[in-house]
Each structure stands twice: as C-alpha cells, then as structure tokens.
Amino acid sequence: QVQVVESGGGLALPGGSLRLSCVVTGFTYSLYAITWYRRAPGKEHELIASISAGGGDLNYAASVKGRFTISREKGENTAYLQMNNLKPEDTAVYYCNLRDYWGQGTQVTVSS
Fold first, then answer.
1. Average pLDDT over all residues of the chain
2. Alpha carbons 63 and 85: distance in angstroms, whole number
3. Which of 4, 35, 76, 93 has the fewest CB atoms below 10 angstroms from its CB?
4. What is the radius of gyration, based on Cα positions, of the chain?
C-alpha cells in the first residue's frame, strides 16, 4: 500500500523558516519525480517546487524561488522542502505528490 506522509508544518513568524518532510512508502520512490504543491484559502492548487528522480533537475515557482529549496534523500525515501524567509502569503496547506499519490497535507501558517 502506497503512503505519502507530509510533516513539519506549523506556525512561523514572517522571515522565519520551516522544513517540510515527505515520506513515501510502498512505492518505488527513486524512479519518479517529487512535487510540492500548496493550497491557500480560497485559491487553486499551486505547484511550487519539483525535483526529478535523480535529483538533478529542480524547478520552482516564481513566488518561492530563492527562498525555498527542494531536495530528496534516496536511501530514506524522503523528500524535503526547506522554506526560508517565510511571508504571510506562504500560508497554505502544503502537499507532496508522486505520480498519482498525494499526502494528506501539512498546514503552514505565517503570522506575527
């Protein structure tokens, strides 16, 4: 059974940092790209970062480029999203996606 589980969300101050994790089990994690999305209240899903299967091809939405870093650990079946210099507009539920599989999301709130 495939499971995608995100964690690491929470409350952060503007300018602060959080690190999200995405653990994938029951699937050949290493063969596929990983993508992080987010959904803010009243808005559509936004693709914010992706990383190729090999880890060498990274892509970011303009809204997070230079502040967020996506990475993956092959041996741990885990992907990460390091989020720095957070802004209130980063408040959203963050989801990890691998092919047709999604996690339940983790809430990130940026507020003073």
1. 95
2. 12
3. 76
4. 13
pLDDT at 27: 80
Q: How far apart are CA 112 and CA 108, in angstroms?
A: 13
Quickly list DSSP for 54-98: TS--EEE-TTTTTTEEEEEETTTTEEEEEE-S--GGG-EEEEEEE
Q: Judge contact between 27 and 78, C-beta under 8 A.
A: no
CA separation for the pair 70, 12 (Å, rounded): 19
pLDDT tens-digit series, residues 50-103: 999 988 999 999 999 999 999 998 777 999 999 999 999 999 999 999 999 999
> What residue has token string 């994690």?
29
